[in-house]
Amino acid sequence: MGAVQVLVVDDQEPFRRAAVAVIEATDGFAVAGVAQTGEESVEVVRLLGPDLVLMDVNLPGIDGVEATRRLLALPSPPVVALLSTYEEEDFADQARACGAVAYVGKSTFGPARLSQVWQLARRAG
Question: CATH no. for residue 36?
């Protein structure tokens, strides 16, 4: 089985770079691509078919919650995890309501959390 292909969706270049570095440093994961907006994420998912999308909540245009709904309506949807600066306790319910497998605070995102999100998705799937 190949590496889990991950798409990073965030409008801030510093976080995109940091997330790519985390993915590259985590065994079993590879970067499928990056997107800067919710609309772009839908197009990139259609083109690349990643396994997992790390979606920022606050994006220009459609936000990450709406983009998640659109991604999950695709014929072969990826797993989506929402990320933002909100406290996890404050946003977890909203993440589940839109179909995301998890919500991860950006301050806690690292290799262990990435692996944990994928394990949650595998159990849920």
Answer: 3.40.50.2300
